Amino acid sequence: SRVQIYYQAFGFGIVTAALLAVGAVGFTLQFAVSNVFNLAYGSVMVVAMYAAYVSLNHGAGLWGALAVGGITGSVLSYLINRLIYRHFVRKQANRFTIVLVTLAVALMIANLLEGIVGDNFFSYQLPTQIAYAFGPFRVTNYETIIVGVAVVAMVAVQALLRGTKLGSAMLATAENSDLAGNCGVPTDRMEDIAWLISGFLCGLAGVSLALTIGQFTPTTGNTFLVTIIAAAVVGGVGRPVGAILGALIVGVSEEIVAVPASEYQV
What we know:
Elements: H1 2-34, H2 41-57, H3 61-90, H4 95-117, E1 131-134, E2 137-140, H5 141-163, H6 165-175, H7 177-182, H8 187-213, H9 220-235, H10 240-258
Antiparallel strand pairs: 1-2
Helix pairs in contact: 1-5, 1-6, 1-8, 1-9, 1-10, 2-3, 2-4, 2-8, 2-9, 3-4, 3-8, 5-6, 5-8, 6-8, 9-10
């Protein structure tokens, strides 16, 4: 029936929103702390997908693959910022120049990956999904894990930012880096930590996306990055809480609107 179709679309929209929330918070945290609109974010997601793929083939299991993906995204994001982006920021390059730099980094990562793995489709070799019914909603065990990981990650990030001295220092750096530095906040260290955390979220989002769509290539992250940016913009770029709300709005509305009109017939 029409109501059931809406229920299913809403349920899958929640899964999509969970994915978007993890990715959008990582993206907006990078921008808030370092003022870098990182278009290489999607490419880092894909590197995390492949790292998780290798770990699964070596018997890591799903939770191990999620950890490997998150750590890969964390380390790669940290290195990209330290070795490339920070140089341009300190030279006071304008925002457009920095965006072009991030685009160049994205292309380099994508081309390198394609040179290594080709343009073939890859998928995770995991046990068959199990479907569960929660009232009118039907979700798989993997979708449940994705939502659970997203909830835990979002709670942890908010607890860090709002309930610790480290989080306060990161927020101060994001608000006004020069003023925070003059007040004794080690802004470079806060920036490094922010990129490590946001990179971990990026990696988690990448592995979760690969689980959801089933197959991926070196360019898979680029398409999803557009949706992540949309969620970040809706919530206000640079605002982690806003990114979560933006992800919920974009994720649910995207799935409901995508339901074909022919399916509405009872």
